[in-house]
Each structure stands twice: as C-alpha cells, then as structure tokens.
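So, could you explain this one?
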Amino acid sequence: MSAIDRLLTNYARQVRLPWSTNTSGKQRIWFAVYPPAEERRVRAHLPKFEAETLAANHGWSIVDLTDLLPEWIAGHEYREGIFAEPEHFSANAELEDLAVYRVRHACQAEDVDASSVVTIIGLATLFDFIRVSSLIERIEDSVRGRLLVLFPGEYAGNVYRFMDARDGFNYMAVPITSVESFISP
C-alpha cells in the first residue's frame, strides 16, 4: 500500500470517529501530513478524501490556495518591479491576510456547518511566503466542524515541519499521517 493510500485509510478512520461539539478551535483542525514530493498524488486522491467524508455523513468543501500568490502578483500595482527584482520581493503579511480571508470565508460559508469538513489545499505554493502556524492560529476560531489541512511536510514528536525545511512548530491539531498503525481500527 502506498503512503498516500495509508494516509487516506487513516483519514477515513479519523473522519468516522464521533465528533465532540465542545472542543476548542485548535482541536477541530486535522493535519494530513505527507511528503512534499507526494503533492500531486494527494491532489489526485482528493475525490477519495471527499468520498470518505461524505460516506461518514459529513459535508465537504475545499479552499484552494494554489493560485493565491500568482493572483496577488498579477493584481499588484508594482508587479513589473517585482518581476524585475524578485530578490527584493516580500509579501508575507499581505499574502497571509489573503489566505486568512479565503479560509475564513470557506469556513463561514452557508453550506458549512458543525458536521462539515473544510479542506485546505495548495499550501506548498506559499512556501517561503507565509507561516502555516500563523495562518492556522488566525483562523482556528472560524472552524465550525473540522478543518483538514493537507500538509506537505513531516510530523514527529508533536512538531510539524512545513515542506521539511522550516523550523518546526508545536500545534494542538490532530495529526493524520501515512504511518500504517497511526490510528488503530
């Protein structure tokens, strides 16, 4: 069984567990952790994640951050200068604000309720521009049901490392990994 198939199996077990209604925002967030090289395979399996969610009688929606950076640059007043001297480019706060807005908007949509899973994809495209830990801390109060963060990186000893490159952060989210015995049936 491939790592992504095991990740999907572990997600299917997690989404079928009973959901407590009196959990904090931090505990309503799930990190599906996978190697960054598997990004395309994870995306190809999104319909299976959706099917497992719907089979567990939960709602499903996606917020895709993949195009956030190119859309921001395309609309930027100084885009020509950014392209001319990319080494001077810094948009961390503005991009993070846009990402926060998109995720909050998805979490507060009319069709999202306390039994829904909102899934974030496309974080890899924002590597080196935003900190995932900061994004999650800013939106955790908006999560009604569960927030599934498709996280290209690693998880070890309660520490998440985005894209296997940044200093890790300790976060209270529920990790879902591709380790075979991660969640016992």
